[in-house]
Amino acid sequence: MTTGQDRERTAINDKYKWNLTDIYPDVTSWRVAKEAVARRLPDVRRYQGRLGESPQLLADALDAAWGLDKDVTRLAVYAGMQADQDTREAGPQGMQQEMQQLSADLKAQSSYLEPELLLIGLPRLEAFIAAEPRLHAYSFYLHDIARRAAHTLSDREEKLLADAMPLSASGHNIYNILANADFPYPTITLSNGRTVRVDSSGYAELRTLPNREDRERAMAAFFGSLGTFSRTYGTMMNANVQRAAFYAKARGYTSHLEAALDGPNIPVSVYARLIEGINRALPSFHRYLELRRKMMQLPDALRYHDLYAPLVAEVRLTFTPEEAQRQIAAAMEPLGREYCAVVQRSFDERWIDFFPTPGKRSGAYSEGGAYDVHPYMLLNYLGQYNDVSTLAHELGHTMHSYYSNSTQPYPLANYSTFVAEVASTFNEALLINRVLRDRTDPAIRLSLLGSFLENVKATVFRQTQFAEFELRIHQMAERGEPITGEALSRLYLDVTRRYYGHEAGICIVDDHVRHEWSYIPHFYIGFYVFQYATSFTAAETLSEKVLAGDGEARRRYLAFLGSGTSKYPIELLRDAGVDMTTDEPLDFTIKKMNRVMDEIEESL
Ligand SMILES: [Zn+2]
Q: How many Å lie between the centroid of ligand 1 and the Cα of residue 458?
């Protein structure tokens, strides 16, 4: 475990801390701004029942609603980042709660908009858009509401569905409490005598230990303890699947998958194609598993508890923040001078909060919600290659937000999840390409190439395996089959053994692995994880074109960064140069994976 949090925030040089005064000079100004916004909230209601009167009035109403949304978001972003700086402080936590209330109030005030717009109907809305230039920014939004009309219910029914929301979240809520607070996680003693608790973060560390018996013990203890609650986990998952069934049925969708993908308007065939493609690519995955066995110099078969162990003897590459910045700036050169100038601004103008400090939120993120300001990044930087890669990743999100915020009007700026991980993964690809160019030391190259393969394993194969498991759970429910812990574990073991080539002896998947599904929180979001895989393949394809020096590819990629949500995600990516309704991006990624394995095998 890292002990990076021992340095107080006040002991850290300002240049490594984000500068929140770009949003508000201080908390007092935030409060003044918040009260002014709260006073404006009732403005939205003034237009109720009158949206169809004239194009100008409709524009006034939408300007009022979206203008408030922009200001509420700015307030919330500031409160959230204040809270993340030091989660122990009560003040910022209170500010965050105030913002949750204000956001809910805004939602309530504007809840009449969509049903009323649907009543007006698309032909009339289109005539309004043609007549009033201020409505151009809302054209996508208005068309999208009309597109979903067949699945939108009456006012009263919509209200009923909204009221059912909190109770439909029970499965997820109970899971969170059990997994994060109440679960009796086991304790084990490692070969060095150290006693550790195997909760989910402990498990994530323990499965990477170099000692094989330790890894095996940790995995058996963790999965075994999950197994003793199998009936409970199955019941929570069933509640979650029934929720999907309820909403899909209420809105008239033919499947749970169709209901989930309709929001971002993604064809269900994209999901099915990914799963088929990955199943076709399993021989390449098995090649990777064999390679891993060889690199780890295991005396016998690879086992499931070997999958997270270091691939090669540790190569310690360390980077100061300045070195990381230099490396990343060099890596981003293929994107052109303008892109690099903004990257430099993010370094020079304190958009980044680098170091872990006591009470600071863990992990990393990019926050692009302050539309009129600039994006921010939170890191817990410890100077490893991984940390540099995380900075490049978050910078990808930041640049996506920067370009979209400065190119699009507010209603079109906020990009969707399906495209969100493309820009971040794209930057990781640029970084690894640059670092590989600069390093000739075979051990370092091996370690970098290995980390690329690890990424493909974790992001493309494992997430698709999850996506397939998830789809099959929902299909079981659609057929009326019971969703129990036992049924889910049987299904999970079956899918996992196929992916890892258990029968052929490529990787032995022990019986206790059947319980792994129960600790993955993403299954409660519903058809989410496949986007990790699709984003990765899209980013690999696009970055390869840009790295090849294709000027047109670069122009299209930069245009994509500035496109926000001006079209549906599939169209945006097609414009950028990759068609997610084809096999191209996945095939490309698998080919690259095989090239990397060729190089590793040669150097071994
Ligand atoms: Zn990300």
A: 14
Task: List, in order, residues 6 or more apart from 304 with CB less than 8 Å away.
Answer: 219, 500, 507, 508, 509, 510, 513
- Report the amino acid identity of residue 21: T
pLDDT tens for 100-148 read 889 988 988 888 998 899 999 999 999 999 999 999 999 999 999 999 9
User: Phi and psi at residue 289, in whole multiples of 5°?
Assistant: -65, -40
pLDDT at 4 over 80: no
Angle at the Cα of 240 from the Cα atoms of 366 and 278, rounded to 5 degrees: 65
Tell me which residues have their CB within 5 A of the ion that is ligand 1.
424
Note the pTM of the prediction, 2 decimals.
Answer: 0.92
Per-residue pLDDT of 466-475, as tens digits, reads 999 999 999 9
Is 394 known to be catalytic?
yes
Nearest to 309 by CA among 322, 294, 328, 292: 292
SS3 call for 187: strand
Residue type, 359: G
Which residues share a beta bridge with 501?
none
CA of 353 to the centre of ligand 1 (A): 16
Angle at CA of residue 103, ends 569 and 252, nearest 5°: 50
pLDDT tens-place string over residues 184-202: 999 999 999 999 999 988 8
pLDDT score for 5: 58
In whole angstroms, give the CA distance from residue 239 to residue 233.
10
Burial of 2 (0-12, 13-18, 19+ CB in 10 A): exposed
Q: How far is the CA of 602 from the centre of ligand 1 (A)?
A: 33
Asked if residue 88 has pLDDT above 90, the reply is no
DSSP class per residue in 506-564: SEE--GGGGGGGGG-GGGGT-S-THHHHHHHHHHHHHHHHHHTT-HHHHHHHHHHHT-T
**Residue of 367, 394, 468, 470 marked catalytic:** 394
Q: Residue 538 C-alpha to ligand 1 middle, in angstroms?
A: 14
Partners of 111 in the beta sheet?
Answer: none
pLDDT tens digits along 335-376: 999 999 999 999 999 999 999 998 898 889 999 999 999 999
CA distance 405 to 322: 27
Using the mean position of ligand 1's atoms as its centre, give its distance from the Cα of residue 479 in Å: 35
How far, in Å, CA of 544 to CA of 589, rounded? Answer: 10
Q: Residue 336: what are its φ and ψ, rounded to 5°?
A: 100, 165
